[in-house]
Specification:
Pfam family, one: Acyl_transf_3
Domain Acyltransferase: 1-341
Protein name: Acyltransferase
Strand content: under 5%
Main location: membrane
Number of domains: 1
Membrane topology: Multi-pass membrane protein
Structural class: mainly alpha
Helix content: 55-70%
Largest sheet: none
Oligomer: single chain
Number of helices: 15
Length: 386
C-alpha cells in the first residue's frame, strides 16, 4: 500500500507545481485542478496505513508504554530534526548564522517546512496509540459501532472545517486547532479504521475478496464525482482552489475510503502472486519502495525544488507543460528514491529516514508488504503469504 500511496503523493505535488504555471482563468488550469483534486485520497490513506502498521506492531507482543514511546520517538525524532535542517538550507538559510537557529525552533514546533506536518501528526498519534489500542482490544464486540461513530464524527469535522471555521476568528486558538491540518484529531477516523482493520483483518478481507471487483467499477463514478465536486466548490460556492481540493470535505471521506479498500484488495491480489517467477522483479521493487516510502516522502522537496528551478528558467508552452508532467513525476520519484536509498545504505544516514538497519527486519515493517493480518485477533485464521 505504501508503495502506491507515495506515488500518489508525488503525483499531487507534481501536478500542483505544473498547475501554477497556467493562467488561473484558463481551461487548462481548471482541468488540472480537477485532476489535482482526484489524487487527494493519499494524505488520509497514509493516515490509515499509519494506524494499521502501528497497531500491528503492538498486536503480536505486549509493549510497555515507555518502551514504545522511546523507540518510536527516537526513530521519528531524528528524521524530523534532520530534515528540518535540510529544508531550512533549501530555503537559503545558512547554518552558520544565528537566524538559522532562531527559525529552527518555531519550525520544529509547527511542522510547517516541506511536508513535515505528517511527521508532527504521527508524533501525536504515538502519544495516544497505546491506550487506544488497549481500549479497542477490550471492546471488540463494539467495533462496528465504534467505526460507524468515528465515520460520522469525521463527516461532522469536515463540515465544520468547510462551512464554519472559515468564518471564525481563530487567531487566538491553540496552534493545533487553528492549524487543523497538523492536528491528529482531524484524522481520527482513518487511524481508528486502520486499527479496527488490523484487529478484524480476516473478516474484512473475506468481504473484500467478494466485493473487490465491484469497488473497482465504482471508480468510474467516484473520480468524475470528485471532479464535479471540485468545480461545484469553485464556481457555485466560489471557494478558492486550495479549499476546493481540500481533503477536509465530506465527499473526500467517502472517496478516501473507496481507494483504501481498493488498494487493500489489489494488495491481496498481488500478494497471492508475488512469488511467481514473472512477478518477482516487481515484488522486489514494491517491497523496497514500501520500505523507503518514508524516506522518499522526506526527500521529495529536494527533487521538487530542482523541478521548480527548471520551470522558472524555461518558458514552456501549455502543451509542453502537459506532456512533461508524467515525465517530471518519474524524475521526482527517481531522485527521491535515490536519495532515500543512499541514506538507507549508509549506516548513520539510515536514521534520517527512520530505517536503521537493526529495525528493518521487525515484523511490523512487513505488515502491509505481505498483506498479513494481526496475530492476536479472533478472526485470524488466514495462512501466511510467505
Amino acid at each position: 500500500m505504501r508503495f502506491f500511496f507515495i506515488i500518489g503523493v508525488l503525483a499531487i505535488h507534481t501536478i500542483g507545481i505544473v498547475k501554477k504555471q497556467f493562467d488561473p482563468t484558463s481551461l487548462t488550469y481548471q482541468i488540472f485542478g480537477g485532476l489535482h483534486a482526484s489524487f487527494h485520497f493519499t494524505r488520509t490513506s497514509f493516515m490509515f496505513v499509519s494506524g494499521l502498521v502501528l497497531f500491528f506492531s503492538l498486536s503480536h507482543r505486549p509493549v510497555s508504554l515507555l518502551k514504545f514511546w522511546r523507540k518510536r520517538f527516537w526513530l521519528i525524532g531524528i528524521p524530523y530534526l534532520a530534515w528540518n535542517l535540510v529544508y531550512l538550507m533549501l530555503h537559503g538559510q545558512s547554518p552558520l548564522t544565528l537566524t538559522f537557529y532562531q527559525q529552527l525552533g518555531p519550525h520544529l514546533l509547527h511542522g510547517d517546512l516541506g511536508y513535515l506536518y505528517y511527521v508532527l501528526v504521527t508524533m501525536q498519534l504515538y502519544l495516544i496509540i497505546p491506550p487506544l489500542f488497549k481500549w479497542l482490544q477490550h471492546n471488540q464486540r463494539y467495533h462496528r459501532v465504534i467505526l460507524y461513530s468515528s465515520f460520522w464524527c469525521q463527516i461532522l469535522i469536515t463540515l465544520l472545517i468547510k462551512f464554519v471555521i472559515p468564518h471564525l476568528d481563530t487567531s487566538h486558538w491553540p496552534y493545533l486547532l487553528s492549524h487543523y491540518g497538523v492536528f491528529v484529531g482531524t484524522y481520527q477516523f482513518y487511524f481508528i479504521a486502520g486499527a479496527i482493520t488490523c484487529l478484524n483483518y480476516q473478516e474484512l478481507t473475506e468481504w473484500l475478496d467478494s466485493h473487490g471487483p465491484k469497488l473497482i467499477h465504482l471508480l468510474w463514478i467516484a473520480v468524475p464525482a470528485i471532479w464535479l465536486y471540485y468545480y461545484y466548490d469553485r464556481f457555485i460556492l466560489h471557494l478558492g482552489d486550495i479549499a476546493s481540493k481540500s481533503v477536509h470535505q465530506p465527499l473526500f471521506v467517502l472517496y478516501a475510503c473507496l481507494f483504501i479498500l481498493i488498494i487493500l484488495y489489489l494488495g491481496r491480489r498481488w500478494a497471492a502472486h508475488r512469488l511467481e517467477p514473472h512477478w518477482r522483479w516487481f515484488s522486489k521493487w514494491v517491497a523496497l519502495g514500501a520500505q523507503l516510502s518514508f524516506g522518499i516522502y522526506l526527500a521529495q522537496p529536494i527533487a521538487i525544488t530542482g523541478f521548480k528551478w527548471f520551470l522558472a528558467n524555461t518558458h514552456l508552452s501549455t502543451l509542453a507543460l502537459i506532456l512533461i508532467t508524467p515525465i517530471a513525476l518519474l524524475v521526482i520519484y527517481g531522485l527521491s528514491f535515490g536519495i532515500a536509498y543512499l541514506c538507507y545504505q549508509t549506516p548513520y544516514l539510515a536514521y534520517c529516514i527512520g530505517r536503521p538497519k537493526k529495525i528493518l527486519k521487525t515484523r511490523s515493517s512487513s505488515c502491509l508488504n505481505s498483506a498479513q493480518p494481526c496475530k492476536n485477533n479472533s478472526y485470524n485464521q488466514q495462512p501466511k503469504h510467505e
